[in-house]
Design brief:
three-stranded mixed beta sheet, globular, six-stranded parallel beta sheet, 330 residues, TIM Barrel, binds zinc ion, alpha/beta
Length: 330
């Protein structure tokens, strides 16, 4: 079903399309550049040049490795929620809170009506897409996750906050489509944090996607999916991008009881582990997936973004996925 949609959009992908979830590690010169920029040692323009250089590097790497659907690698973002908060009127920067491990970020505060005034990701998408013939995914953070990872001092409740954000993210989706983007990923890593709020998340994604012509993906990871499956399949997306390997493919048991009805970007390498899996391990994971899922529905990618891995580890993990895909196709 979704293959037809891809063909209608002019995208003829091979079996087991290989993609990446979104983020890649920033090369050393960009980390240095971000630090220099914070200390006012370089200008915003100089930092932008470094971000372009790093984006070009990652597009070239993905091309060389042979990925089928590329990402820009998010070289211009610190954090996936803060980036949008910094660019949307209605938000103010809050204090530092801890996210995974030893990473800290400024949790944004919604202090007024959130508004979309200009595209936030379109220029980066265009920059990346101009470097390659392969499709590049548009990458956005979903309204539910932005709501969940922010403080709200303006809207009456969580649902109202989520829906207000949804209309803003929809404007960005429209701008991406107008620019020619055909595959758009709306990340919702907070999907499973409050199972009773799944209807709010779905309502938000409906507002984001309804009536718009693109192939939509949403990414979620490291959650208690047994509480939201199969209801999560009601989300209006074509493809769920899911972490599978870190949790030992546990979700396959859920799929056995209630068939998975969408395409899936099946996480075949563990993004939390330094170890680079071998091709046989990745193949074995796909073969297990094939006991439950039709092959036409399966895309392959790492479990999650790779920004916490090194450049070498990230390339190594992508390489084994591409090699496994090639061997499975033949
Ligand atoms: Zn993730």
């Amino acid at each position: 079903m979704s293959r037809e949609k891809l063909l209608q959009l002019g995208l003829d992908l091979p079996l087991f399309p290989v993609t990446a979830v979104g983020s890649f590690p920033k090369p050393d010169y960009l980390l240095q550049g971000r630090s220099d920029f914070r200390k006012h040692k370089i200008t915003a323009d100089q930092l932008h040049k470094l971000e372009e250089r790093a984006t070009t590097f990652w597009i070239e790497q993905q091309e060389e490795l042979g990925l089928d659907v590329l990402v820009d690698g998010e070289m211009y973002r610190g954090d996936m929620v803060a980036y949008f908060a910094e660019n949307l009127p209605g938000f103010e920067q809050g204090g530092l809170v801890r996210s995974y491990g030893n990473r800290y970020y400024h949790k944004p505060i919604i202090t007024g009506a959130v508004e979309w005034t200009r595209p936030m990701t379109v220029d980066w998408w265009k920059f990346a897409q101009n470097l390659t013939q392969k499709p590049v995914k548009g990458m956005l953070t979903g309204p539910y996750t932005i709501m969940d990872w922010s403080f709200n001092e303006h809207y009456p409740d969580r649902r109202a906050t989520c829906l207000a954000l949804a209309w803003v993210i929809r404007r960005e989706v429209e701008a991406l489509i107008e620019a020619g983007c055909k595959i758009i990923q709306v990340d919702e890593p907070a999907m499973s944090v409050r199972p009773e709020e799944l209807p709010v998340l779905i309502e938000g994604l409906q507002a984001v996607t309804q009536g718009l012509s693109a192939y939509f993906i949403t990414h979620a990871c490291y959650g208690a999916f047994e509480h939201i499956y199969p209801d999560m399949l009601k989300a209006p997306v074509d493809n769920f991008d899911l972490e599978m390997s870190n949790s030992d493919l546990d979700m396959l048991d859920l799929f056995r009881k209630n068939p998975f009805t969408k395409d899936i970007s099946f996480g075949v390498t563990d993004s939390h582990s330094h170890k680079i899996e071998d091709v046989a391990t990745v193949r074995r994971r796909v073969e297990q997936a094939l006991t439950v899922l039709p092959k036409e529905q399966i895309w392959l990618d790492p479990d999650c973004g790779l920004k916490t891995r090194s450049v070498e580890e990230s390339i190594g993990k992508l390489r084994v996925i591409v090699e496994a895909a090639k061997s499975l196709r033949s």
